[in-house]
């Protein structure tokens, strides 16, 4: 979206058109565009409104019904925090006693909206003028929110007692930047803000290596319905339990938090598959807390280097998905094909860890036929390549 498109959308005619469009459906977009233009509407306005309609439809995955009253840019939507996660960010600042938070890389204003919705004063800053204008629209219902166009690192923080930053994590070529030094602004520059405002929170990519984590931070990886979406670095009063590694698992309306216990995560032995297999949530894996799952289910690892846990006990845990082990065999395409055909399996879900097998190539080689479904897990068991045939397990099954 450019300035002309934004100006067109913010006109009375543009805002009315955007509100009157039917739910976005790619199959009718071209015909709808042609009809609106034939009725005399400006082509720039029509294109801008239909683009926003598409982005709003996509934005519902992150903002639910709030998306219907927001404006988006494509890049802003991609980097925006899911509103359920942003609400958890806001709760941290409120619990720390903050009253006015500066969001120094506000983008389209998702996190700033969550701060303001909780009654916090907000200073939202973005270096891109168009993006700042979009954030202004999205924050229009919150008089306590102020949007500024400028460099967040040099903005006036007078009266601010909490700072949040979400540095851009894509290169000029559009690739993800995994090195914190390649963030925009670089992570080290953001961390210097602690000298001005100790209550600092920074959203970083979930792939950040442990070696790159700054000292003194509580680092928490977050997953939503099993999808790892971010890691957060929290400092000062925002980390009341002090430095450490943890995971926040959000599923529907439930939330589970775990973190490294005092003295570090427990050790876990590796051993043969038991009656059940546990696949830890990705946030638990990123936080290095897989052995907590083994402890909870009274089990052990399949391999010391692989994030699979096994046990003879079926234990309901939000930290991992559980499967009943139906068969275990050394990996080999012919042997696996025979085992699956004997079970009448025609459709498989393939999971893998610690193996170079390409799932789609294996699926073709198996040449399966049948009506049954199965999940196969390709992994190492104490160093040896094995395959487990499993099915989802629930208590009482």
Strand segment count: 16
* General shape: globular
If classified by CATH, what would the architecture of the largest domain be? 3-Layer(aba) Sandwich
The CATH superfamily of the largest domain is known as Vaccinia Virus protein VP39
Secondary structure layout:
Layout: H1 3-10, H2 12-20, H3 29-38, H4 43-63, H5 74-79, H6 83-95, E1 100-103, H7 110-117, E2 121-126, H8 129-138, E3 145-149, E4 162-165, H9 187-191, E5 200-204, E6 218-224, E7 227-234, E8 244-251, E9 254-259, E10 276-280, H10 282-286, H11 290-296, E11 300-301, E12 309-311, E13 320-330, H12 333-342, E14 345-352, H13 359-366, E15 372-381, E16 384-392
Parallel strand pairs: 1-2, 1-4, 2-3, 4-5, 6-8, 14-15
Antiparallel strand pairs: 5-7, 6-7, 8-9, 10-12, 10-13, 11-12, 13-16, 15-16
Helix pairs in contact: 1-4, 2-4, 3-4, 6-7
What does this structure look like?
This protein has 397 residues and is α/β, with parallel strands linked by helices. The protein folds into three domains: 3-72, no CATH class; 81-259, Rossmann fold; 276-392. The chain has 13 helices and 16 strands. The strands form two sheets. Strands 3-2-1-4-5-7-6-8-9 form a nine-stranded mixed β-sheet. The protein has a seven-stranded mixed β-sheet with strand order 11-12-10-13-16-15-14. Strand 14 (345-352), helix 13 and strand 15 (372-381) form a beta-alpha-beta unit. The longest helix has 21 residues, at 43-63. The mean pLDDT is 94.
């Amino acid at each position: 979206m450019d300035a002309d498109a934004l100006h067109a959308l913010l006109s009375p005619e543009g805002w009315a058109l955007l509100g009157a469009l039917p739910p976005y459906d790619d199959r009718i977009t071209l015909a709808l565009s042609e009809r609106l233009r034939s009725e005399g509407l400006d082509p720039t306005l029509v294109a801008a409104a239909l683009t926003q309609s598409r982005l709003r439809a996509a934005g519902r995955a992150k903002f639910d019904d709030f998306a219907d009253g927001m404006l988006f840019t494509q890049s802003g939507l991609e980097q925006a925090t899911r509103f359920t996660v942003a609400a958890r960010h806001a709760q941290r600042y409120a619990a720390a006693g903050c009253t006015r938070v500066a969001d120094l890389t506000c983008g389209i204003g998702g996190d700033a909206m969550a701060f303001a919705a909780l009654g916090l004063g907000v200073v939202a800053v973005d270096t891109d003028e168009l993006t700042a204008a979009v954030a202004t629209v999205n924050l229009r219902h919150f008089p306590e929110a102020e949007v500024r166009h400028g460099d967040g690192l040099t903005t006036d923080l007078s009266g601010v007692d909490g700072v949040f930053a979400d540095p851009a994590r894509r290169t000029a070529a559009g690739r993800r930047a995994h090195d914190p030094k390649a963030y925009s602004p670089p992570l080290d520059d953001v961390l210097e803000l602690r000298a001005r405002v100790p209550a600092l929170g920074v959203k970083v990519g979930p792939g950040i290596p442990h070696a790159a984590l700054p000292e003194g931070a509580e680092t928490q990886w977050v997953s939503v319905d099993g999808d790892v979406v971010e890691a957060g670095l929290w400092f000062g009063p925002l980390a009341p339990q002090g430095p450490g590694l943890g995971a926040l698992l959000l599923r529907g309306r439930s939330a589970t938090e775990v973190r490294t216990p005092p003295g570090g995560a427990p050790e876990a032995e590796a051993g043969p598959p038991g009656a059940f297999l546990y696949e830890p949530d990705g946030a638990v894996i990123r936080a290095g807390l897989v052995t907590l799952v083994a402890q909870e289910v009274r089990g052990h690892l399949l391999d010391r280097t692989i994030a699979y846990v096994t046990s003879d006990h079926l234990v309901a845990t939000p930290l991992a998905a559980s499967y009943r082990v139906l068969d275990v065999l050394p990996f080999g395409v012919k042997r696996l094909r025979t085992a699956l055909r004997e079970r009448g399996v025609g459709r498989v879900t393939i999971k893998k860890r610690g193996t170079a097998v390409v799932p789609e190539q294996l699926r073709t080689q198996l040449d399966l036929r049948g009506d049954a479904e199965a999940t196969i897990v390709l992994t190492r068991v104490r160093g040896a390549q094995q395959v487990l045939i499993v099915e989802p397990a629930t208590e009482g099954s």
